[in-house]
Design brief:
The complex is a heterodimer of chains A (about 100) and B (about 650). Chain A has about 100 residues and is an all-alpha fold. Chain A has four helices and no strands. Chain B is built from 16 helices and 30 strands. Classes of the chains: A mainly alpha (about 100), B alpha/beta (about 650).
């Protein structure tokens, strides 16, 4: 369906934007945005971010998209699990005002 | 100077923790035979609470006593000569408290690991010095608290336990810290040290149950296996009639939700976590009677943000694992004169606080001095068998004005001071203490690493400092090195800036200066896009149909990244492109590439390799190429060209 294709294209665009945001906000100079796989874990073995990075990223996401993380840390761990899950979270929350 | 303190009272062999309060915190003194733990709790008083969503998360003092009894019933008594310890790994602060108190009741000492990285926890658990692991997670084996404390087990009630007053000289915990040598140093704390400090903090910061019956309800963003978290989020509530949150929230919205849902009035945190609260809207945090920060200086910007958005002042505490708490200060005390979270201490201290915003004031019972700018501490929180005064690794400068409190014999000179940093090779990164030598040692242990050097640089943001590394490790990638380090080190201290180099910039005598390391690191990172290729002097040079080149794969070749994080290789397309470009440079009349045939990549090509590229023009429009490394063919192929200049795109 065209709607689905459009949604998927905007999701991909958002993922690209997030990768750039991650590299900029966290000053990951060894990493280029295109190096980040949308599905790889952000924390630990994938990109190797730590809890302070995640807090910095949450601040950057809030600045850029006006979206805050949820009020449940186990859900937040999933949201900040990968670029894909973060993009999905942002796209469902961005439109709605809090 | 009063010599009632420090050493005299605590050196007494027969002293138990029950005798501490009259000495260090008279307002908290109860019966001289009663343990200070739970001394200010009624049986139905809360000791632990959780988020609303977790129904039934609340635990009373009586429930805690019976849960301790349950664990005590299955724990063996510690033999008097057994030097081993129990490792407690619990993500739920209530479970942690149960494990700790049960282990102490049975005569055990408890090991507190330096971080919660799985590999390190397993290595600690396997250490011969550990007799048992008490935990609440699927990742560890040992005594799992979850089934033991589950609701259904409670059909058989356990008699609430009367806690034994622990001898002041008994060692209760061993904290593993990063030492300047790089080895984890084990540092024991006695019952006297821990409880003297917990009682002092509770009294000094007004956390004890008040005349209005209000009790401290503590939410901490820091884990309880660090000494700061242990004292402020577990022991202080336990000795002062307070309660703590079972969860350890991290994200701003979760911190807020936890504070709101649990009606907490005290937040125990660190600068990096406090800084992240800025994403909350103004006024979104409840009024709190105390916000504590420790581990690193609170950036003025964060202090301002907390004041402006949430009307919160932050009480910073300076201390170390070895010395316990040393001094405190309140961020930005003078902006509001009226009450509202800004009041710091009863007793007319407001004036001296106002002009001493950046200065530290020693905690009660702490005496400080300095030798050549190095801070010396004497206090009841020091190890009973250590040097007095204790030389710290901190550099300080006394404030020009010393605040004396004449007319009050019990108060000594109040030395206010400025903290200037540390004197050794240990730095604080995101409030975690880390030894440079330890990062280097872990790097050198990685297979393939020949040499490594680490330095620390100042950076903005929540981190304050970050380590950078130079590594000689042919064929290794920064991603691989970081993944290896993550098995051992806290993620916060793993170098994110890492350069793979052919050799460290050592001086002729072998020494490596910080300046040389930084010079190498600070060099603008070249984004090396091409293989290094130059014409090879050879017999073939005179042959018009042949060309040979010497090729080197730079270690920071951009295309090395991305494909396989752990094993960088030169993509085939990069080899192909080099062959095409060199063929065209040598024979410009070849024109555009039309197709490639018989392309074979015979083995992976890695960083740091030296090889030869040989071009052989077999026909006017055809060039065969081969990359050869010590007579071994790496890749071969046949390139067909249009043999006319390609149209420009």
């Amino acid at each position: 369906m065209p709607g689905e294709a459009a949604a998927s294209a905007s999701q991909t665009k958002l993922e690209r934007e997030l990768k750039q945001l991650i590299v900029d906000a966290l000053k990951l100079e060894d990493t280029a945005p295109e190096d980040i796989d949308s599905d790889e874990p952000l924390v630990g073995d994938g990109l190797g971010l730590d809890s302070i990075d995640i807090l910095e990223l949450a601040m950057a996401v809030h600045r850029r998209f006006g979206v805050k993380t949820g009020s449940d840390d186990s859900q937040n761990r999933e949201v900040y699990g990968s670029v894909r899950s973060l993009a999905a979270f942002i796209s469902t929350h961005e439109a709605k005002p809090e | 100077m009063t010599d009632r303190y420090p050493a005299v009272g605590l050196a007494n062999r027969s002293l138990t923790v029950a005798g501490l309060a009259p000495i260090v915190a008279p307002s908290l003194a109860r019966s001289p035979t009663l343990s200070p733990i739970l001394a200010h709790h009624e049986p139905e008083s809360l000791v632990a609470f959780g988020l609303e969503a977790r129904s039934g998360a609340e635990r009373t003092a009586e429930r805690l006593r019976s849960d301790i009894a349950r664990v005590v019933a299955v724990l063996p008594e510690c033999a008097p000569d057994d030097p081993r310890e129990i490792l407690c790994v619990a993500s739920d602060r209530y479970h942690f408290a149960v494990a700790l108190l049960a282990a102490w009741q049975r005569g055990h000492r408890v090991a507190l690991p330096p971080n919660a990285q799985p590999e390190l926890l397993r290595a600690v658990a396997d250490d011969r010095s550990i007799s048992l692991v008490i935990h609440d997670t699927d990742e560890m084996s040992g005594l799992d608290l979850r089934p033991l404390l589950a609701e259904e087990i409670r059909a058989t009630p356990a008699e609430p336990l009367a806690l034994a007053p622990l001898p002041a000289l008994r060692k209760l915990v061993t904290v593993w810290t990063s030492g300047s040598t790089g080895e984890h140093q084990r540092h024991s704390k006695t019952a006297g040290q821990l409880f003297a400090e917990a009682l002092t903090l509770a009294e000094h910061f007004g956390l004890a149950v008040g005349s209005d019956g209000e009790r401290a309800r503590v939410v901490a963003t820091v884990p309880s296996h660090h000494i700061y978290g242990l004292l402020f989020s577990v022991l202080v509530p336990l000795v002062s009639g307070g309660a703590f949150s079972r969860e350890t929230p991290l994200h701003a919205v979760v911190v807020r939700a936890t504070l709101m849902a649990t009606h907490a009035n005290v937040l125990v945190s660190v600068p990096a976590h406090l800084r992240a609260l800025r994403i909350l809207d103004p006024g979104q945090l409840p009024a709190l009677s105390r916000v504590f920060s420790s581990g690193a200086p609170l950036p003025p910007e964060t202090a301002k943000m907390l004041r402006a958005r949430f009307d919160l002042a932050v009480t910073e505490v300076l201390g170390s694992t070895e010395t316990g708490g040393i001094a405190w200060r309140v961020s930005e005390p003078a902006l509001t004169t009226a009450s509202g979270g800004g009041e710091v201490e009863e007793g007319g201290q407001a004036v001296s606080e106002r002009d001493a915003a950046a200065h530290w004031t020693p905690l009660p019972h702490v005496q400080i001095s300095a030798v050549e700018g190095r801070l010396l501490v004497d206090s009841p929180f020091l190890p009973p068998d250590g040097p007095r005064p204790w030389p710290t690794a901190d550099r300080i400068e006394f404030a020009t004005q010393e605040h004396t409190r004449p007319g009050s014999a019990r108060h000594q000179l109040r030395h206010q001071f400025r903290h200037l940093g540390r004197v050794d090779g240990v730095v604080k990164i995101g409030a975690k203490r880390v030894a440079i030598a330890e990062i280097e040692r872990r790097l050198l242990e990685i297979a393939g690493v020949e040499d490594a050097a680490v330095a620390v640089i100042e950076v903005g943001g929540a981190r304050g400092h970050e380590p950078v590394a130079l590594v000689v490790g042919p064929g290794l990638s920064p991603e691989h090195l970081r993944a290896e380090l993550r098995r051992w080190l806290d993620p916060v201290v793993i170098p994110r800036r890492m350069r793979l180099v052919d050799a460290l910039p050592r001086e002729p005598n072998g020494k490596l200066t910080r300046r040389a390391i930084l010079a190498e690191i600070e060099q603008p990172k070249p984004r090396v896009l091409e293989l290094d290729c130059r014409s090879a002097p050879s017999a073939e040079a005179s042959d018009p149909t042949r060309a040979a080149f010497e090729v080197y794969v730079p270690r920071d070749l951009y295309s090395l990244r991305g494909h396989f994080r752990g094993a960088p290789i030169v993509p085939g397309v990069v080899q192909l492109e080099l062959a095409r470009a060199q063929a065209l440079a040598r024979w410009p009349e070849l024109g555009a590439l039309r197709w490639v045939r018989r392309l074979k990549f015979l083995r992976p090509l890695g960083p740091g390799e030296h090889l030869r590229l040989i071009l052989d023009r077999r026909a006017p429009d055809r060039v065969e190429f081969s990359f050869v490394c010590a007579d071994e063919r790496v890749s071969v192929g046949s390139l067909s060209f249009s043999a006319t200049p390609a149209p420009q795109e």
